[in-house]
Amino acid sequence: MQEASLDESAAVPVEAGLGDYFALLKPRVMSLVVFTALVGMLAAPVPVHPYIAFVATLCIAVGAGASGALNMWWDSDIDTKMRRTRSRPIPQGRVRPEEALGLGLALSGFAVVLLWLATNLLSAALLAFTIFFYSVIYSMILKRRTPQNIVIGGAAGAFPPMIGWAVATGGVSLESVLLFALVFMWTPPHFWALALFVKTDYGDAGVPMLTETHGRPATRVQVFAYTLPLVAVSLGIAFTSLGGWLYLAVALALDVWFLAGAWAIFRRSEAQAEADSYATEKRVFMVSLWYLFGHFGAILAQSVLTQWGLAQWGGF
Questions:
Q1: 142-146, 158-162, 171-175: lowest mean pLDDT where?
Q2: Both 183 and 276 in a single domain?
Q3: Looking at the predicted structure, is the pLDDT value of residue 3 above 60?
Q4: Is 7 exposed, middle or buried, given 0-12, 13-18 or 19+ CB atoms closer than 10 A?
Q5: If residue 230 lies in a helix (H) or strand (E), which one and from where to where?
Q6: Taking a C-beta distance cutoff of 8 angstroms, is the pair 92, 14 a contact?
Q7: Same domain, yes or no, for 32 and 135?
Q8: Which domain of life does the UniProt lineage start with (predicted)?
Q9: Rounded mean pLDDT of 41-45?
Q10: Residue 313: its pLDDT value, please?
């Protein structure tokens, strides 16, 4: 009787909670998207009404969450095979794939239309393209077909600061393109550092990450190689209207920190990495997060000081 009751209880489907649906939106990724978009909006030369800024930020956050839900719907088959994704709501059976699809589509439409009505057509079009790029170009086409998945697909995460800039100005400028380039160039070394220490996850799922297609030594080379143009973009921003003494000082410190980590990854062998359980790779991955948040935080702080006439080129 006890065994029968255990079997019956195991057959009962797990009921999804609000937290499961929220997890579909990839809140950690959403937080990065919201922050970079908000900085692009506030650092733009045209002031935005606080209410409009709030609505625009909400729309961008919802659009990012919609992309996450659509990605989890499409990747539900391979998420069950990867250790870092198998605890997500769909692989655990708490949410059905079609529910994630419906949620993603509904939120996409809501976010794009509301952003259009609240701000302008360009920002809404950029948000719509970002959702399409992440859900279709990256998730459906690139991710399972080419080791360039992260390189090209990184554009999806690079659009939010450009969207924020477009909310404020209604256009695109050199500054917003450089903000895009900063995130775009940051994405490959950030994810490849992760790929080095998650070991066989991507291979088990059949995802052609660079570590699987070209080998781990080649990935180490690419982490360092992509960090060099990333540093160039970082320093280039300092000499635009976004730049100043404060931004340059912070950018230089972060560039040296990340470049040193990328060089350490480049010099290490797999035997060395195995010996200390990939301690350096894990550290550089965390450094990469601080690197991006630090740059955008410095841009925001520089913008405030510039409005006060401080810490500019030609100022103190």
A1: 142-146
A2: yes
A3: no
A4: exposed
A5: helix 216-237
A6: yes
A7: yes
A8: Bacteria
A9: 96
A10: 57
The pTM of this model reads: 0.89
Contact between 61 and 114 (Cβ < 8 Å) = no
Q: What is the CATH number of the domain that holds 99?
A: 1.10.357.140
Q: How would you label 156-187 residue by residue, b for 16+ Cβ within 10 Å and e otherwise?
A: bbbbbbbbbbbbbbeeebebbbbbbbbbbbbb
312 and 263 in a single domain? The answer is yes
Same structural domain for residues 132 and 201?
Answer: no
pLDDT tens for residues 204-232?
778 888 988 999 999 999 999 999 999 99
| 308: amino acid identity, one letter | W
How many domains does the structure of the chain reveal? 2
* Final residue in a domain of this structure, among 148, 171, 194: 171
Check whether residue 60 and residue 86 sit in a common domain.
yes
Name the residue type at position 214. H
Query: Does residue 164 sit in the same domain as residue 178?
Result: no
pLDDT-above-90 percentage for the chain: 71
Query: Counting beta carbons within 10 angstroms of the beta carbon of residue 124, is it exposed (0 to 12), middle (13 to 18) or buried (19 or more)?
Result: buried
Q: Are residues 116 and 225 located together in one domain of the fold?
A: no
Q: Which two tokens stand for residue 74?
A: 């499409």
Residue 250 near residue 295 (C-beta atoms within 8 A): yes
Query: CB atoms < 10 A from the CB of 34, how many?
Result: 19
Domain boundary among 108, 142, 171: 171
Instruction: Tell whether 295 and 153 lie within a shared domain.
Output: no
**C-beta separation of 150 from 188 below 8 A:** yes
Domain containing 93 equals: 17-171
CA distances from 86 to 79, 80, 90, 91, 136 (A): 5, 5, 8, 6, 22
> Which of the two residues, 1 and 57, has the higher pLDDT score?
57
Rounded (to 5) percent helix, strand, coil in the chain: 75, 0, 25
